[in-house]
Write a structure and sequence with these properties.
- Helices cover 76% and strands 0% of the residues.
- The longest helix is centred in the middle third of the chain and has 19 residues.
- It contains four helices and no strands.
- It folds into two domains: 36 residues; 34 residues, no CATH class.
- By secondary structure, it is mainly alpha-helical.
């Protein structure tokens, strides 16, 4: 079993000792996630535009350099 599966199993065991109201909330949250995971994601118009922009950039050879990516990651790691 993966580390994440072990964590989930531990939380479920722990949740059995929670007050019923908290258990109901946890079940509702998990049911909502399960429903989302079972349905295919439907692209929005903005999603499609972003994909089209990315494909157009790739076709013209327009890519971000490794150095720019490194700077971006460094900036967000430090915030």
């Amino acid at each position: 079993m993966s580390g994440m599966a072990n964590k989930l199993t531990d939380f479920i065991k722990s949740a059995q000792s929670w007050p019923e109201e908290a258990q109901e909330e946890a079940v509702a949250s998990l049911q909502s996630i399960e429903e989302e995971m079972r349905q295919p994601y439907e692209l929005t118009a903005e999603d499609r535009r972003a994909i089209d922009r990315g494909l157009a950039d790739a076709k013209t050879g327009r890519f971000v350099s490794d150095e720019e990516i490194a700077r971006l990651f460094a900036r967000f790691r430090n915030e």
